Amino acid sequence: MHAVTIDAPRPHIATTPSFAAVAEELLDDVYGYLLYLTKNWAVAEDLTGETFEAAFKKWRRFDPGRGTPRAWLLAIARSTALDWFRSDARRRKREERAGSAEQRAEIDAFGESFSAELAESLQALSAGEREVVALRIVLDLDGEETARLLGISVTAVSTRLSRALSKLEERMRDHDVVA
Amino acid sequence: MTSSPDLIHELRASRPSAPVELRSRIRAIAVEQERTDSTALWAGRRFPVRRGMLVAVPAAAALALASAGVLGLARSDSPQAVGRDAAEKATLSAAAPETAPGALDTSGTRAQTPTPTADERAQKASATLTVEVKDSDAVSRAAQSALDLTRTLGGFVVSSSVATGDTGSASITVRVPVDKVQEAIAGLSGLGRIVSQNVTIEDRQESIDAFVRQSRSLRAQIALVTARLESETLDAETRARLEARLKNLKTDLLVARRSLGTLRAEARMSTIQLTVVTPEALGAVAPPSRIDRTIDEALNVLAWEGVVALGILIVLAPFALVAGAVWLGHRLYRRHEEDRLLAT
């Protein structure tokens, strides 16, 4: 088991803030989450835009009594990303059926902020594992908030995070050995 | 070698930031949102379904209770009126088969007590009254008053039975002159609370007229036969036949006169049957108060509302179950699909 030390979650915004303030504050969170999920900065940018457009349309329905703006936005981002995963899966199937020999140049890149080792290690994780790392480690969501967002139990979140970190650690260790 | 704290530190250190172009694009969206908000009529107003249900469900319950209360209050009339109406309806329905065709059958309260429209026609009037008094002593007093009243009006007592004790009751049958029947009924009705009242009037004039005509005819025939017997020389056989006929005619005349007498006696005197009872003897409980009746009526309305709600629930339940099953299946499928998508 890993001893994971996580900072205390950020204080929630109690009253309904303006959409602009929320967007300004949470843009990096949403983008980072989507980047981890899709491991593709170009796709993450597109999906971030779609997420905020969807949030813009739904903003009047946002109820601060039922959750933080961050959890709300991340839920929209997750839904947007899942739609993209679905369409991407359909696209891949179509290409397989067509027997297209031409392989599309995948731009699996995390961007400049990641070290090459870390980026490569993250590539080895599944989307679900990267997702839980992003939420629990990078964005500092607590277990309950993460579980609610993912629709799984807190225990499942811990298990998934532990497994992801183990794999990640292993991959990083391999890099260290090679280096 | 990379340890978990180092790894976590590195992950946090490499926290991605949104590119400048993306930030500009999101800011533009935010500006658009704020501009729309400032012009939208319903900006910032939300009608969440759950909160709406929190209001709607108690409001519906309150409406159901209020309607039950209002209807209950509206339906709870005065107990006397209700009891009297019921008693009169029962009396009317019970008396209906006894009423002769063409006879006038009426019943009503003291103020509306009908009187036989005697005029010149001979009519038979009879009445049945049941009055309730508070206790056994009151029964005795009422019976005595009834007898006194009958005598005062020129009538007489046909039968009288008074029982006292825990459950006192009295049964009195009197006959009073037909022109005093209205006064008699009014007086007897005043002895207690009317439980039931039935007045029946039957026309006897046609029967009397028929017997009068028959009597005249018989007398004429008797006179004719008598004259023949006195004035003519008759053979023995004829004389015997006429004498036999004369005898029969006289017998018929006697019967007709007696019937006529009976009918005229009936038309002169009315029969009134009076029953005096206590609440215990009547087997009736004390009339409920207005609050009790209101509560009863309100509970009836609530029961009906419950029946309607249950009916709606029974009709909608299968659809709700199917919808729930579809929703659950869809949700499970989506979860499975998400797991599959995120496993790559």
Explain what the structure shows.
The complex is a heterodimer of chains A (179) and B (344). By secondary structure, chain A is mainly alpha-helical. In chain A, 68% of the residues lie in helices and 0% in strands. Chain A has 7 helices and no strands. The radius of gyration of chain A is 17 Å and the shape is globular. The N terminus of chain A is likely disordered. With 344 residues, chain B is an alpha+beta fold. Chain B has 10 helices and 6 strands, in the order ααααββαββαβααβαα. The chains are: A mainly alpha (179), B alpha+beta (344). Chains A and B meet through α1, α2, α3, α5 and α7 of A and α1, α2 and α10 of B.
Task: Describe the largest sheet of chain A.
Answer: none
Strand arrangement in the largest pleated sheet of chain B: 1-5-2-6-4-3
Strand % of chain A is under 5%
Number of helices of chain B: 10
In round numbers, the mean pLDDT of chain A is: 83
Number of helices of chain A: 7
Number of beta strands of chain A = 0
**Most extensive chain-chain interface:** A-B, 52 and 44 residues
Cα Rg of chain A: 17 Å
**Average pLDDT taken over every residue of chain B:** 79
Could you spell the SSE succession of chain B in H and E letters?
Answer: HHHHEEHEEHEHHEHH
Distance between the termini of chain A: 26 Å
Low-pLDDT stretches of chain A are 3-9
Radius of gyration of chain B: 46 Å
How is the main sheet of chain B built?
A: 6 strands, mixed
